Amino acid sequence: MKKYLMISLSFMIMLACSANTEEKASANNNNNLKGTTQNSEATDTAYFAGGCFWCIEASFEQIEGVVEAVSGYSGGTKKEPSYKEVSYGKTNHAEAVMVIYNPQVISYDVLLDIFFTAHDPTQLNRQGPDVGKQYRSAIFYTTEQEKQKAQAKMKALASKFDDPIVTELKAFDFFHEAEDYHQDFEEKNPNNSYIVNVSKPKIEKVAEVFKDRLKQ
């Protein structure tokens, strides 16, 4: 009888430990899933092209809610293009910028406003002194909602420009990050002649229009 009670007691302890272990594992899994969901929902990405990516990157970088702006290439066919290939117009890529942002702080609509302020969307396959399809104005949308918002924004802004908006609206395919020396180029090379004469006026225009949204 005593032996039977000891076996029963041991069996109950094993069941309790097993249940406790499963409960902890379940809790850990839930925490991991919650963390993953939180991380995936914390930021979103948008892709724009508007001439030299140095100008567009720096214009977005100064805005609150923009976590990071990355210069790169998008809209073409080659999977791993080089700056030389893109600048020679051999890949059909545009110099583009991936904008990583917090949608709780800044909306896609506001990003569109900044984009259309940072460059002239009426210039076809060029932007100021930069000529070629690699410098075209383009929005690479990742969702149908982004596409519709971009279309609505272009329609709303049409009357504000003397010439038609020629911004290309294209479904996002892929983004290839540009070489390291292109990243944060304006910040690292403030006295570069191109930065002083071409980039700065665009960046300062964005800063003035969106002064209430600048990072502190």
Structure characterization notes:
This protein is an alpha+beta fold. 47% of the residues lie in helices and 19% in strands. It is built from 7 helices and 8 strands, in the order αβαβαβαβββαββαα. The strands form 2 sheets. It has a 6-stranded mixed β-sheet. It has a two-stranded antiparallel sheet with strand order 4-5. Strand 4 (126-127) and strand 5 form a beta hairpin. Helix 2 (53-61) packs parallel to helix 7. 31% of the residues are buried. Residues 1-40 have low confidence and may be disordered.
DSSP helix count? 7
Structural class: alpha+beta
Work out the helicity level: 40-55%
Unreliable stretches: 1-40
- Roughly what is the average pLDDT, rounded to an integer? 86
Biggest sheet details:
6 strands, mixed
% residues in beta strands: 15-25%
Run of helices and strands: HEHEHEHEEEHEEHH
Number of E-state strands = 8
Evaluate the radius of gyration: 25 Å
Q: Order of strands side by side in the largest beta sheet? A: 7-6-1-3-2-8
Shape: globular
- Give the CA-CA distance, first to last residue: 77 Å
